[in-house]
């Protein structure tokens, strides 16, 4: 049996990857700041901090890990303490890399982000494009990549640059969208809503992670869906399948972006610089490299996976809003000033 460590194993994607690996017979160790209620004969659960070198060293001593799936990350909208975010995402990654080298782990699979950029390239973004993050989360992910590259001669390190990961149970900022749809309100797009923004289905990312663990080399891959439709088309698809009376409506672009910037400065909005920079822009990864190198291909489109996530929200809405002490993607983000927009919708 393969023995793996999953950092962030109690999070949204970590929980899905963990279950998929257990289903395939892997021995899994999960570490997370949040409590993990999962239980399985092949699973060891640790509630702990990857910045704690003593805790991490004990895990590497006790278990002969073949692979570390390094998913743990603190999101910018989830915490006020930016030093904590930076320390968790950067110092934690340094610990993972150092111990993987020391204990001769074969591979590290790291989930990076499309937040490495906040601009419209007017074409698919390739692995050769130079990252230029504008906010702390994206900067911390880039620093994590830099750290892991320094260890790539000792440990096979595969970095996935991921857009938003979608599946049943994905909430966070998406819960705001789902609430508007569920209550038959106007679903707002900025400008005409003709911009296209790529997602990745969690099930497809899981398959890529499993392939990457046995890749035998170090590399960076963009990952994402194909046949990316506009926000307006994607929202219309979800609304029609949901059968609500919600409808897509437009907000003026310049005024909306100004208002989002102001709300962020006043700390009354869950949307940060990345969101207000990209909410009316196109962003799509070129995924030709991963398709060729890992023999991988996406299986779900943006609209299909977003409806799947909405359906989970609809079926579990009451329970979702009672959740406490779970990761940011497993709970609904607070609306803040967006609640005013809901009232006029």
Describe the structure.
Helix 1 (12-23) links the parallel strand 1 and strand 2 (27-32). The chain is α/β, with parallel strands linked by helices. The longest helix has 21 residues, at 82-102. The protein folds into two domains: 3-166 and 198-222, Rossmann fold; 174-197 and 229-282 and 301-343, no CATH class. The chain has helices at 12-23, 53-62, 82-102, 136-149, 174-182, 202-213, 231-242, 253-265, 273-278, 288-293, 302-320, 338-343, and strands at 3-7, 27-32, 43-47, 67-70, 107-113, 156-162, 164-166, 186-190, 199-201, 219-222, 247-251. The protein is built from twelve helices and eleven strands. Helix 2 (53-62) packs parallel to helix 3 (82-102). The strands form three sheets. The chain has a seven-stranded parallel beta sheet with strand order 3-2-1-4-5-6-10, sandwiched between helices. Strands 7-9 form a two-stranded parallel sheet. The N and C termini lie far apart (53 Å).
Write the layout of secondary structure elements.
Layout: E1 3-7, H1 12-23, E2 27-32, E3 43-47, H2 53-62, E4 67-70, H3 82-102, E5 107-113, H4 136-149, E6 156-162, E7 164-166, H5 174-182, E8 186-190, E9 199-201, H6 202-213, E10 219-222, H7 231-242, E11 247-251, H8 253-265, H9 273-278, H10 288-293, H11 302-320, H12 338-343
Parallel strand pairs: 1-2, 1-4, 2-3, 4-5, 5-6, 6-10, 7-9, 8-11
